[in-house]
Amino acid sequence: MKKTIVCLLGLPRSGTTMTAAVLDVHPSCNVWFEPWNTRRETKPEPLKSISEFVDQYYNIFGLDVRDLSHLVLKETTSDHYCIEWISKCVENMKQVDDVEVRIIWIVRELNHAYLSRIDGARKWWGHHDLKVGKESYQHYIDFAYTGIRQIEEFVSRYSDKTLLLSYEAFLQNFERTLSEIMVFLDMQVDDRQKEYHKHFKKSKAAGDQGVVQNPEAPTYAKVLKQAEKWKKHSHLISEITWDGFQKMQSIERFVHNVQEKTTEYYTEYMRLHGSPVQKYSKRFKHIVSLGNNCIPRTIPTRKGFKKTKNEGELTLPFDLSVTPYMAVCELIETDFRDFLNVDYLAVNEHNKIVHTKYHIVFNHESDPNEIARYVADNFALLKEKYEKRVVNFYQYLKDSDILFICTYARVVYPIELCSILRRKFPELNFKLLSLFFFEPEAYQIEYFYPQKLSSDFIDHHAIPYPYKGYEWYKPEHFESEAGKSFEEKIAQILSAYIPFEQKPL
Q1: pLDDT in tens, 134-150
Q2: Domain membership flag for residue 87
């Protein structure tokens, strides 16, 4: 039986153990939990072949894994040699055996990972006096930087066999992400994986009997509850984060430039906002908004990167409405099923036209002077208008070379959306630009200052509003000096994809 070696990697406290537990309950998988880190004192030699893997596993744990198709090596960057050891194992096996290699790299919001590591050190590792502070944070930044560089170096050799996952996205959309993982591994989801924490007695994982075999079931609600507990550190974190990242400014790129054949999210950037962005030699033909508000249409037009309607630009379904992230995902995946179903169109208590299934607000059609026209005849005019916009959407996507833009007021890593776009439009050349806007004065602990993420398909930027209460669509705000500076930051990002001095094609 041909084997698949799955390398499950990440920083400590980033979700690797949870993912290992999810994989381990599958009947065709087994997990070797941190084979280097749990034996670091003996300094084991890298595995030389699949047969050595099978023999060592049996000799150490008494478990026979000869008939399993997927062998999982789970490691974190807790020791500087962990990733190098995994890398050598894989290279050795490839020389001897006919094996497939798959890498799952799971990442977590950096400051949450830091605070979770502090909690873990106090709770499990005997460092009861360890405190959140400048010294421990600086140490963590150095630690994280080294670890991610090690993972990236390994991943660069298997970029077309790598899946980058967000811990937060996994918790928010567990079954969707699980499905994505199993498709990536060429396997079917086993129902037990959906309730993996209830099946620990059947666990085959070896190396850590107390965690993978007795897993908790983290949820996004639990993460937010934990974030509430960390609120007392919010002021300190906001002070030390920027200082801690100062050294990052001198690093042109946090990772190497991997080959163009990369097929999924192969790398992570952790650079300060304002660092130089990568320039692309190939221009994109169209900017297409994917919600959640009008910024992706309005500001690129205002800054000259997108044509105006009078210049022939077509209006698209997400250009001039407020559409939640998951609604965008489902609408694209289902070819806009129920988008204009009148059973879901209504006028809410604020006198706004809304979509009750997808929680869309048609704010431009809800103007007091216009709403009666759009509501009349069972929303006939609104339906006609948006039917044309859906047609325009697919017309643009026929041209390829699309720069998708989505904007959010909360941290969203659009992994699901990117996967849907790739499945639905496999021949489409695109980039998904995700812009997260936040008010520093109203800063919420659950996302601190999120890092910038980038891959072959996604660029994610965090951009602070100029001041509390900034309303980007009001002239008195966007025409102010602060407003102009804010839009100039967005223009700088856009110039990486469409030259500033030229109009789009």
Answers
A1: 777 777 777 887 888 88
A2: yes
- Enumerate residues 6+ apart whose C-beta is below 8 A from 501: none
Residue range(s) defining the domain that contains residue 9:
3-109+147-219
Domain boundary among 219, 240, 272: 219
SS3 content of the chain, % helix, strand, coil (to 5): 45, 15, 40
166 and 303 assigned to the same domain: no
Pair (355, 480) in one structural domain: yes
Inter-helix orientation angle 110-123/234-244, to 10°: 120
Kindly state whether residue 347 falls inside one of the protein's structural domains. yes
Residue after which a domain boundary falls, among 219, 240, 269:
219
- Please tell me the pTM assigned to this model: 0.52
Residue range 404-426, pLDDT digits in tens: 999 976 656 677 788 889 889 98
CA 440 to chain centre: 22
In this structure, the answer to whether residues 198 and 300 fall within a common structural domain is no
Average pLDDT over residues 42-56: 88
**319 and 425 fall within a common domain:** yes
Task: Label residue 268 exposed, middle or buried (CB < 10 Å: 0-12, 13-18, 19+).
Answer: buried
Percent of the chain scoring above 90 in pLDDT: 29
CA dihedral sign of residues 51, 56, 57, 58? positive
User: What total of structural domains would you count in the chain?
Assistant: 2
Give yes or no for a cis peptide into 292 (omega within 30° of 0). Answer: yes
Bridge-based pairing of strands 453-454 and 458-464 is: antiparallel
Within a domain: 231: no
How far is 463 from 473, CA to CA, in rounded Å?
16
Which of 54-63, 238-247, 493-502 shows the highest mean pLDDT?
54-63
- Short-list 62, 53, 63, 70, CA closest to 1: 70
User: Would residue 374 count as lying in a domain?
Assistant: yes
Task: Give, in order, the Cα–Cα distances in Å from 150 to each of 94, 180, 304.
Answer: 20, 25, 40
3-state secondary structure 218-273: CCHHHHHHHHHHHHHHHHHHHHHHHHHCHHHHHCCCCCCCCCCCCCCCCCCCCCCC
What is d(CA 505, CA 498) in angstroms, rounded to the nearest whole number?
10
| Helical spans, DSSP H, in 276-324 | 295-302
**Residues 172, 301: one domain?**
no
